[in-house]
Amino acid sequence: MPTMSSHRRAMPPRQRFQDLHAAEALVVSVLRLWAEPLREPERQHPHWQDGMTTAGLSNDAAVAFDTLMRIVLAATTRPLDLHRPPCPSLGIDEALLLDMLRLAQQGQHGEAGVLMNDWLPLAGVRMAMAPLCVLASALSRAGLLMPDPEAEDLRPHRTAAGRMDRPHPTADRGATLLH
User: Fold this and answer.
1) Mean pLDDT of 96-107
2) Full-prediction pTM beyond 0.90?
3) Predicted confidence band at 10 (pLDDT cuts at 50, 70, 90)?
4) Which of 63, 138, 142, 70 is nearest to 104 (CA)?
5) What does the UniProt keyword field contain (predicted)?
């Protein structure tokens, strides 16, 4: 059976919260705040929806996020790696959600579903894809696009002399298998 790593696209490692773009930081912050009452139900917690509202997202985005995460919690096949709000590092599953949202924003729903299969059995993936796509669309409408790490790596960078360095193309020599 294929593993998650066999399906995952090669992305640069995002290990620190501070390295995230604004849209990514919003999603991770909302996710962490959403999970806090599950860890400590007896304490008062900030409302996770407030960040979404401040960012200009509609109530549909909040409902989609909550629905997605409730499906994931109900049907997950393994514990999720979600960090606490003040943690400076990024959890594996936090990065996975960002990748799924990016793929959904790019219209690559099948690939997003393949990544989601690391969390859920196929029936759960089918249920969770709709709220994932609603959330991705709401983020897009609000101008909150998940950055594409591959496109950023290909963007020319200026040197100290002010001239443009050209990206150096790399060839996939068949190392990527498509199923």
Assistant:
1) 97
2) no
3) very low
4) 138
5) Plasmid
